[in-house]
Design brief:
Strand content of chain B: 15-25%
Structural class of chain A: alpha/beta
Helix content of chain B: 25-40%
Number of strands of chain B: 9
Largest sheet of chain A: 7 strands, mixed
Structural class of chain B: alpha+beta
Shape of chain A: globular
Largest interface: A-B, 118 and 98 residues
Strand content of chain A: 5-15%
Number of helices of chain B: 9
Number of strands of chain A: 29
Number of helices of chain A: 32
Largest sheet of chain B: 3 strands, mixed
Strand order of the largest sheet of chain B: 8-1-9
Oligomer: heterodimer
Distance between the termini of chain A: 65 Å
Shape of chain B: globular
Radius of gyration of chain A: 29 Å
Chain lengths: ~950, ~280
């Protein structure tokens, strides 16, 4: 492998790229080196179809008699016409005009896949990061497929992944650095050279660093998959102010899992081997962090293994709609239903007594007492789900155990009581003893690349503190690991609780994805609150609109990463992201940008960037063993195969039963009372039936139904002793940071309901949100093939609700979103904004059309996210041409023109904003975050997207 | 495109036929084709001796077919976007689509999904109706179009019982699923079957008991699943079989003769059952 020239990465990539082979039967066997097959270069300049993915098109109005018969094989033509037909035949064959000059030629091209390179990569159009293969011909990516070598996704790829071509070759993609020339947010830009851009950014960052306040430089990532590169840069710089979106996503589910397990925040439900799948509010068939790998295994579990799937969800998602049963609980009551199921399991005596009594921090007797009032009838009174169904499903679940598992996600966790919902759901698995069992509720310690590759050396962690990164009000946000509380940052800036001298955003679209869009926009636009904003993104989105300098980022198809996520195979793997084509224009990855900035900032930062990108990647992947069939190892092997799974590691079933060896026990001490085995001050296991075993990695070495830790952490008590016994050394005791912010967190799984839901009157509904199967939250509406399928988002209401409000399909309503009353009472640092005449704090108002759907709870109203862009290319705005052109300074619409949507975008909204003229299935929809209040769960800070009380009136 | 539009379109095409004849490109009786709209698809058919050679697949021992396990499909649209990417299909046109239907009333509601494309009928009406001889059987019996010949009469659209053919707005030629023969001939699966995240789509050689489609179908039969075909009464002998309840529920939503797949399938206002 040769050294990579950052200015021209493709040069050496091409030279060093190996043939990509042994990918299974689905792949071409006749690969050749790109450019060697002259026969493939036919008719480059003549379009073979009208889709026009970047190709210029001809008009077709000449089709017909006047056009010369170009390219017709007259001999063949005559042959096909056959013999003459007798006079008087009713229909006479052979009567044709000749095909016009715009006709398809050689379509589909039988040589399309001849002479292509197959280059492995990993998708990044959502967080599931499925393995992909790019078919590259003459330096152009012509198709993306799934990589069968990826052990998690197994070669499958969803609609988003298939639309990657739109992403790469989008004519309005950012390809050049830009600097704003008007006021911030005005949309006026000029092009910069990279040197100019880097010099200016480095100058600002250097000044902040040298003034001794590095924490006033905040890095804010949306979806990031280059953790190593970010960490190295920010630690070398010395700021810990790294902001994320985790609390908008999954904080409660992670914290609930961590409470039980400590070693993992991610339950990996072993659905493929399951007999019963009990789903609370997860839409794994459309979105979910494990989307395709998870969904495919669910269907295998059901249709090969005979599993039953029952879904509880406020809205009929595709997952709910395709389940064996769908139940629609009142919003946010999943935890009550789950506790009632636990009650039924205990009452009917179908629990796993040995597991509960031996392996948890509770007991059957204690649980029976604790849950005695959580009856199915109680849950029915709260959730509306019939008690007989709750009881029946609980008993079915228990009967299928241990091959039975719950699954849950944002449907249950993105609530003001989300932590408690997910605690209650997890408890079901412990009661039936499916924790860690084949077909049960599993996890793995391998959420990333460890232990397969050795992360390159990193600078010592930065020691700064910022209220934006570690707000004192949220006790479980940053204890086990840093989940952070993203949704409060713009409010805290507005309140003056922090200041930002420089703000670098990366793959982030907070105006669309953060609650309270107008507040987000106001703060982003305010040069006093955010003094300098650099945006790194492949497209000019709403965040870029409020930047001072915009840097054109490479797409995931043009850059390097090693990447992996928690695999449903329950064993670790590692995958490779590698440039499939030369980066378009002057787009660059942070693996190039950061070293350039570090060298300019100096002060020792540059010392972390002595190796080339290639050397760095080689070193990183150097532990990948040799493939005996190819003789290749390390990065070479990954460049052949795209991913490597260590199949010598057994799937992570029942790790707590693993015996400790004599060697491990040497010098260990056993605590008489608890049985916990300590060695050198750290827990290593527990005595079980007289034998030393690994146990769980909690302070008790058991599955923590009762958690002393969360209670003490909530009250800001010292928990260092518990952390030592768990052996999870990265867990932090942080009473200092949280002083003055005590929160009662029950040691046991309990359930509570926000006051505004308890007292919800007939005039109000609860809003829920959802993702579509063809979109992620803020980054796919620019892709024409996806936007064609879903581009708008009328609000779903039940026909009964519609009747009550006198609404029918397509009628428009005005929605008002209210700030949480529970948070008004319990979180005095949060309330802000204006009150209406009834004294209610208003988060926002918006007008939208409704669609009546049978699949939604009558007290809920649902709007999808992903819609309502006001930047992010013409496509995302459902326009045939751009509304503004200032930012096109950074694009190259001449080279990458795509006349398809200019010609064929059938969903452009022609109503001019007039609701009475709006046509169904047109336009680009509405951003639901205009009316969503900032609403952090008090325990973890997860944004309660699904708890918002709204009122609606017909307009 | 509505049936009415399709007819208008056909009328226009017939006009150019006359022009072509007048220009001397071909000599034949054009007026017969410019006749009034016909309701019976068979009235568009050409005499058998004109198409019987084209209805006969090359003798390569292969018999390509499809099996769609709609029980597994969760409507992700992956197959459709894979098809758009593979074939660069213009916006507003579709070689394949997945149809949705919400069945039942609150609180007992289910959503069903039906991925649809050309059925590659053994007795393909599009081949019979094609006036210029472009539609024919390729390897394994795939119904394919010769683009040196197709001149956009759209009679194939008029007779397809599944609405599976559209007229390309630029090329003014018919476009339909071609079984990705450019991939299959290279040992790959069609783009849709390759990508399907739910493993609902199976393609392959029905004559080969070890092909993916044969194995999936025999597995389904072993599980006592009923394998159904759509619109069998049209007697076109389609080469696509389905398992699961969706086909019977959603059949009404699939376009008919004279229609093509269209954006209405994506309109959420159309998901629910019509009252």
């Amino acid at each position: 492998m040769k050294k990579i020239d950052p200015a021209d990465p493709q040069k050496d990539v091409t030279q060093s790229r190996r043939r990509f082979f042994k990918l299974g039967a689905a792949l071409v066997t006749t690969t050749a080196i790109a450019g060697c097959d002259a026969g493939s270069q036919q008719q480059e300049d003549e379009p073979s179809s009208s889709g026009g993915n970047g190709a210029a098109l001809q008009d077709s109005d000449q089709a017909g008699a006047n056009a010369p018969p170009q390219g017709i094989d007259m001999e063949k033509w005559a042959r096909l016409k056959g013999e003459q037909w007798p006079e008087g035949t009713e229909t006479t064959p052979g009567v044709c005009p000749l095909p016009g000059p715009g006709k398809k030629k050689n379509w589909p091209d039988p040589d399309k896949y001849k002479g292509t390179e197959q280059i492995p990569g990993m998708c990044q159009l959502c967080s599931t990061i499925c393995g992909i293969i790019g078919h590259v011909k003459d330096g152009r990516l012509i198709k993306i497929e799934g990589n069968p070598n990826d052990p998690n996704s197994r070669g499958r790829l969803c609609a988003r992944g298939q639309a990657g071509l739109n992403h790469l070759y989008h004519p309005e993609r950012l390809l050049y650095p830009m600097k704003r020339v008007g006021a911030r947010g005005e949309g006026k830009w000029k092009r910069l050279t990279w040197d100019e851009a880097l010099d200016e950014i480095a100058g600002r960052l250097k000044e902040i660093r040298e003034s001794g306040t590095p924490e006033n430089f905040a890095f804010h990532q949306g979806r990031q998959r280059s953790k190593d590169a970010l960490k190295r840069f920010l630690d070398a710089y010395g700021t810990k102010t790294q902001l994320s979106h985790r609390s908008l996503c999954s904080g409660n589910r992670r914290a609930a899992n961590l409470t039980y397990l400590w070693e993992s925040d991610w339950d990996l439900n072993d659905v493929e081997n399951s007999k019963y799948i009990l789903n609370f509010g997860s839409n794994a068939f459309e979105a979910h962090q494990g989307h395709v790998p998870f969904a495919n295994r669910i269907q295998n579990g059901r249709f090969i293994n005979g599993a039953k799937m029952v879904t509880f969800d406020v809205r009929l998602s595709n997952t709910a709609g395709a389940s064996d049963e769908w139940h629609s609980p009142f919003p946010g009551t999943d935890g009550a239903v789950a506790l009632a199921m636990c009650n039924a399991i205990l009452t009917e005596g179908v629990y796993d007594e040995a597991f509960i009594n031996n392996w948890t921090t509770s007991s059957v007797e204690e649980l029976k007492e604790h849950l005695k009032d959580s009856t199915p009838e109680w849950a029915e009174s709260i959730s509306g789900v019939p008690a007989r169904d709750i009881r029946r499903i609980a008993l079915e679940f228990a009967a299928a155990a241990p091959a039975a598992t719950t699954m849950c996600n944002r449907g249950s966790s993105a609530h003001l009581n989300g932590f408690y919902n997910d605690r209650a759901i997890g408890l079901l698995n412990a009661l039936v003893g499916s924790v860690g069992k084949k077909g049960g509720w599993c996890w793995s310690p391998w959420g990333g690349l460890d232990p397969l590759v050795k992360t390159p050396q990193m600078p010592p962690g930065a020691k700064t503190w910022s209220v934006l990164e570690d707000p004192p009000e949220y006790p479980l946000a940053n204890v086990w690991r840093r989940m952070r509380v993203g949704e409060i940052i713009y409010l805290y800036l507005l309140q003056g609780r922090a200041k930002l001298d420089a703000y670098m955003t990366y793959n982030l679209d907070s105006p669309l994805t953060w609650p309270e869009e107008s507040l987000t926009n106001d703060v982003l636009c305010n040069e006093e609150l955010i003094k300098f904003h650099v945006c790194i993104n492949p497209f000019y989105n709403e965040t870029a609109h409020y930047a001072d300098i915009v840097l054109p980022w490479t797409t995931y198809l043009e850059r390097w990463d090693l990447d992996a996520r928690a695999s449903y195979n329950l064993r670790p793997y590692v995958g490779l992201r590698t440039p499939m084509v030369e980066p378009l224009g002057e787009s660059r990855d942070v693996r190039w940008i950061f070293p350039e900035l570090a060298r300019r900032i100096g002060g020792g930062m540059e010392e972390w960037y002595s190796e080339t990108e290639e050397e760095y990647m080689e070193q990183w992947a150097s532990t990948i063993p040799e493939n005996p069939d190819t003789g290749k190892s390390g990065l070479d092997r990954l460049m052949d195969e795209g991913a490597w799974e260590n199949t010598s590691i057994e799937p992570f079933y029942e790790p707590f039963l693993k015996s400790l060896s004599e060697e491990e026990m040497e010098g260990a001490e056993v605590d008489e009372e608890s049985g916990v085995i300590m060695k050198e001050g750290t827990g290593i296991g527990i005595m079980m039936d007289g034998q030393p075993v690994r146990g769980f990695k909690t302070p008790s070495r058991k599955f923590e139904i009762r958690s002393v830790f969360i209670s003490r952490a909530g009250l800001n008590q010292d928990v260092k002793d518990l952390i030592a016994r768990s052996s999870m050394s990265k867990t932090k005791a942080r009473p200092e940071q949280h002083e003055g912010h005590e929160l009662d967190i029950d040691e046991m799984p309990v359930w509570l309901q926000p006051v505004e839901h308890v007292e919800l009157d007939e005039e109000h509904l609860i809003m829920t949100s959802f993702k579509w199967n063809v979109h992620n939250h803020g980054r796919t509406m620019n892709l024409k093939w996806l936007a064609e399928i879903v581009h708008t988002n009328p609000a779903w209401i039940n026909p009964m609700t519609a009747e009550k409000y006198g609404l029918k399909d397509g009628d428009w309503i005005e929605l008002t979103g209210y700030f949480s009353r529970m948070l008004e009472e319990t979180a005095p640092h949060l309330p802000h904004g204006e009150k209406d005449e009834q004294g209610r704090l208003i988060a926002g108002r918006m007008r939208v059309p409704v669609v009546t759907m049978p699949g939604i709870h009558p007290r809920a109203i649902a709007m999808s996210n992903s819609c309502g862009h006001w930047q992010y290319t013409s496509v995302a705005q459902a326009r045939k041409s751009p509304a503004e052109t200032g930012h096109l300074e950074g694009s190259d619409g001449e080279t990458y023109r795509d006349p398809d949507w200019e010609r064929n975008m059938w969903w452009e909204d022609e109503s001019g904003g007039d609701p009475t003229a709006w046509k169904q299935n047109t336009g680009n929809g509405w951003n639901q975050n205009r009316i969503m209040p900032i609403a952090p769960d008090p325990v973890t800070g997860q944004q309660a997207f699904h708890s918002t009380v709204v009122s609606l009136k017909k307009i | 495109m509505t049936k009415q539009n399709r007819r208008e379109f056909l009328g226009k095409t017939a006009g150019t036929v006359a022009g072509a004849a007048a220009a001397g490109a071909l000599s034949s009786d054009a007026e017969a084709h410019a006749a009034a709209p016909k309701d019976d698809p068979a009235s568009y058919f050409q005499p058998k001796s004109y198409w019987e050679d084209r209805m006969t697949a090359p003798d390569d021992g292969k018999k390509y077919g499809w099996f769609i396990d709609t029980r597994r499909c969760f409507g992700c649209h992956g197959c459709e976007v894979a098809c758009k990417a593979e074939n660069d299909v213009p916006l507003g046109n579709f070689i394949r689509q997945t149809f949705y239907k919400d069945v039942g009333e609150y609180p007992k509601v289910a959503r069903m999904f039906l991925p649809m494309a050309c059925q590659h009928c053994e007795d393909a009406p599009c081949v019979k109706a094609c006036p210029c001889g472009a539609l024919h059987k390729g390897s394994g019996g795939s119904v394919v179009i010769d683009y040196d010949v197709c001149c956009g009469h759209a009679t194939c659209v008029e007779v397809c019982p599944y609405g599976a053919i559209y007229i390309d707005p630029v090329a003014n030629q018919a476009v339909k699923c071609h079984n990705c023969y450019h991939r299959v001939d290279e040992g790959m699966d069609p783009a849709c079957a390759t990508t399907c995240p739910s493993d609902a789509i199976y393609f392959g050689d029905l004559n080969d008991p070890d092909s993916k489609v044969s194995r999936a179908m025999s597995d389904a039969e072993e599980r006592d699943l009923e394998l159904v075909q759509l619109r069998g009464e049209k007697e076109t002998r389609p080469r696509m079989w389905f398992a699961g309840p969706a086909p019977a529920e959603i059949e009404e939503r699939i376009p008919h003769e004279g229609e093509s797949y269209n954006p209405d399938a994506y309109n959420i206002y159309n998901w629910k059952e019509k009252s």
